[in-house]
Every structure is written in C-alpha cells, then in structure tokens.
Amino acid sequence: MQQPKKTGFQDVRDEVMRRIETRVWDQGALLPTEAELATEFGCARATVNRALRELADRGVIDRKRKSGTRVTALPVKQAKLEIATARRLVEERNATYRYALVSRRMQAAPGWLGSQMGLTPGTEVLHLEAMHYGDGQPFHFEDRWINIAAVPGCAEADFALKPPGEWLLAEVPFSNADVSFTATAADAALADYLACAPGAALFQMERSTWFQDAPVTFARMTFHPGYRMRSRY
Amino acid sequence: MQQPKKTGFQDVRDEVMRRIETRVWDQGALLPTEAELATEFGCARATVNRALRELADRGVIDRKRKSGTRVTALPVKQAKLEIATARRLVEERNATYRYALVSRRMQAAPGWLGSQMGLTPGTEVLHLEAMHYGDGQPFHFEDRWINIAAVPGCAEADFALKPPGEWLLAEVPFSNADVSFTATAADAALADYLACAPGAALFQMERSTWFQDAPVTFARMTFHPGYRMRSRY
DNA sequence: AAGTGGTCTAGACCACCTG
DNA sequence: AGGTGGTCTAGACCACTTT
Question: Based on C-alpha coordinates, what's the Rg of chain B?
Fold first, then answer.
C-alpha cells in the first residue's frame, strides 16, 4: 500500500524525458531495451512501448529494430502552426470580424496558376478578391482561385456574405495543402486595400490545396503591416 | 484463406479516414463505438482504439467518453514547420554554406529584451551579430542574445567558426520556444548586410527559447529578399 | 446508473536490422 | 542467427460524462 498510483505510460514518458533533459542519458546514448525499462518501472512492455513511441513522434529519440533506442543527436525542432480562418484570427484578438467581397469572375487559368496548382492552363477557374477586417481596420486581402471542376458548387455559391475560405472548409473539409510564407512590398492596389504606404513590407501566405490529388484552390493572403504569425514548440 | 493479410491498425485508420473523406460519415456525425468497429473489422478493440487515437491527434475526429466519437465539424488545420539551422536550409538548396561573426559583446539586457525573454532588465547577456551565406549570397542576418546565467559556457565559447544556433542546439538540445514571423522593411544596416535596397520587404523570424522555465536565448533572423518558408499539411 | 473511451496486462508472433 | 522494436489479442478495470 505504499504506492498510491500505478505506473502509467505518461509516468514512463515523463521520467524518460526527464532523464534525457538532465543528461542521465546524453545525446546519442543508447537507452535500455523496452523489456528492461518495463522491469524497472514495474509495468508491461506495451506501456513502455507507448511511452517511447510518443517520444519518438516528438523527435526526442530514434528507434531502430535490433539497434535499440537512442537519444536523438541533433533534434530537428518542429513548430505546429494553426492555419485558422480570418474570422478566427480576428476574434481571437477580441475584435469584430467583417468580410467584404471585392470582385468575382470566371476566367481561364493563367499560366502561373496552372503551374502553382498543377492545373492545365486555360481550365476555367473562379477568381475572387476579398477583404477581411478586424474592428474596421484592414486585416488581410485575399486573392483566391478555385478550380470549378473540383468544386462544382462554387459556381452557384454566394460569396457576398460567406468568405470563400469558410465555404471551402465546409465543402472540402479534409484536404492537403502546400503553404508558404514570404514578405512582399505593397503595390498600389494592396496599399489602397490595406491602408498603407506603397512599398510597405507586408507578410504574405500562399496556400495550394488538393483533395485526393485533384487541385482545389490557390489562395494568397496579404496581411496588414505589422502582422505577426505566432507559434510555439 | 481468403485474406492474405491481417487487419492492422493502419488498415482501420485508413478505412475510417476514407469513409470520412467520402462522407459516408459526414461532418459532426457519430461513429460506431470502438467495440462495434472491432467486430466489423475483425480485430481487437485495442487496435481500433489506436487507429482512432491517431485520427483524433490529427484533429479529424473528436472523442468523448460516453458521448462517443464524432467527425470534427470544422477541423483546424495544422502545418508542421521544421525550424532548421541556416546550414541545413542552405545545404538543402544545394548551395555552399558560409558563416561569419559580425560582432560579439557582453552587455546589460535592454528593457525590450527583458520583456521578450522574461529576463530581469540589466542582467548580463551575450549579444552576437552574425551573417549566414549560401553560395556567397547573403542568406540571413542573425541578431542573437544569450542569457549567460542559463548557459555559462557561452562566455568562453568561440563563435567565430560555429554559429550560435548550432552551438546552443548541442548545449541545450531539448528546449521550448515561442516563434513568430513577420515582414519588416530593411533599415540601412540590414540593407548593407543583405545587399538589398533600404526599405526592401524582408521576411523575419523571431524566437525566444526556454529550458525548464529559464530563459535561454532570443534570436531575430532576417532573411534575404524573396525568401520563402515552406510547409505542408 | 450506465455507456463509452482510456489504459493496462501478459503473452505472442512478426519484421527488420545488424553481426 | 539472434536481438530489438512493432503490433496484435483477449480480457480487465478505470474515468469520465451524460441521463
């Protein structure tokens, strides 16, 4: 009756992590086998396995059959970025969100879009421009292209009230995407939309989205001056 | 003898994912219980549990005791960003990496740094400036501050050859960090270092690092014009 | 009170890798 | 050839949440 709790996989995981952080097991060092750790912690091997599997997912340890488990020598740090809708980003800042459609037209896909999305140039696409505001201040400008063949419903969809990002999220909820971030200088149009000086440095996110290998949409979001995207790891 | 393979947790995971993608189970819909799925797939409940746990980690489904498992209504997409060293980023581009220390001095922490890192202003810190090159072209400028108390060895470390990021990665391998990304206009000094026009739009990453709740370092990396950070989800 | 997911166990077999 | 992690099983008990 001395131990109030049983050893769970989280206990094993945290203790192993502690030993790595405090260099009981240094970088590159070989850990005991699962069976040995199970004996030490007084639990089943499956419990140790789950604990170590989580640490391996985090990149803290490397596991190989026969070789055993080692502390990762030079861990590659990974940050998780939440790709949220403009509405969410604005409301997280306790501001009032507003959306406005700027333009909407069907057109043939230009060449650069074809290579971006892996689309045959000349394919009919829906091109939207829109603005997103927080408390009346420009938040970001959206330049959106949608592959009509992949999402036929978009031809009839009304984007006057609902942002295309939110519409697509409901229509094609589980898609894959390439995303890239860069800095760009405001041209005349962006300066106008975002109420900044031409040439101002703006943070920009571009995203190409696929669903089951079919290109769905390409979006370029250009944020107001001073915008910061944050994350943690 | 009809089935060549056994049903593994990956089979279950993929089949459930397929049913969600094809809207067999629509957004918000309730899935069968683990026990029911185990019967259907002809495997143990633990196998189903692991499959569903992975999908829950991805944010595809929401699980609650008693309520059961539901398809996430509005999934929050997450991108994984690899925070790599400059050397890695450059060599990934098949370019030759070069590093140069620009300045190095001990000083009292300025106020803005104190609030950034959660450090008492006036604490002695090591301030480094350095450049990283790819094939001789400016890659990024590094403005680095290290809390000497947290990493005593840095006072004697030679940063003439080894970049502080790599040195710290070996010294404090398992740290936590806040990271933020923004766009900034080149000032005179940055324009000089990065060989661009003053006012050019530059991509910038800032990172504050802790180890076991103690502030370790703050780094501001300013990249050459046109730099793109990429990811995928 | 009852239903559902969360976790653990003890044992087993397999797949992969290294010597 | 043998050691190590990867996975599955069948059963059990627990924890949380809703009714």
Answer: 25
pLDDT in tens, B79-99: 889 888 999 999 999 999 999
What is the CA B79 to C1' D11 distance in angstroms?
39
Calpha distance B76→B87 (Å, rounded): 32
- Contact check, Cβ <8 Å, A83/B77: yes
How many angstroms separate the CA atoms of A70 and A51, rounded?
14
Are the CB atoms for B39 and B74 separated by under 8 Å?
Answer: no
| Residues of A in Cβ contact (< 8 Å) with B77 | 82-83, 177
CA–CA dist A153, B175 (Å, integer): 47
| Cα(A210)–Cα(A220) distance, integer angstroms | 15
8 Å CB contact between A224 and A139: yes
Domains in chain B with CATH codes: 9-71 (1.10.10.10), 86-223 (3.40.1410.10)
Dig out the tokens for B44 from the structure.
Answer: 């143990």
- What angle, rounded to 10 degrees, do the helices at B45-58 and B34-41 form? 120
User: CB-based contact (8 Å) between B14 and chain A?
Assistant: no
Encoded amino acid at A149, one letter: A
Distance (Å) from CA A173 to C1' C1?
A: 38
Mean pLDDT for B61-65 is 95
d(CA B60, CA B17) in angstroms, rounded, equals: 8
Whether the pLDDT of residue A169 is over 70: the answer is yes
Q: Of A72-76, A103-107, B115-119, give the range with the top mean pLDDT.
A: A103-107
B135-189 confidence digits (pLDDT tens): 999 999 999 999 999 999 999 998 999 999 999 998 888 888 999 999 999 999 9
Helix axes B45-58, B9-21, angle to 10 degrees: 50
CA distance B26 to chain A (A): 10
Beta-carbon contacts of A15 under 8 Å, excluding residues fewer than 6 positions away, are A41
Query: Which bases of chain D come closer than 7 Å to a protein CB?
Result: 2-12, 15-18
The closest alpha carbon to A93, from A128, A129, A140, A130, belongs to A140
**CB nearest A174 (choices: B21, B79, B174):** B21
Give, in order, the Cα–Cα distances in Å from B224 to each of A1, A183, B3, B97, B105. 63, 10, 56, 14, 25
CB < 8 Å to B81, chain A: 78-81, 231
Contact state of A179 with B231 under an 8 Å Cβ cutoff: yes
As a residue count, chain A comes to 233
Strand partners, A209: A177, A217
Q: Do B51 and B15 form a contact (C-beta atoms < 8 A)? A: no
A183 vs B contacts (CB less than 8 Å): 183-184, 201-204, 225, 227
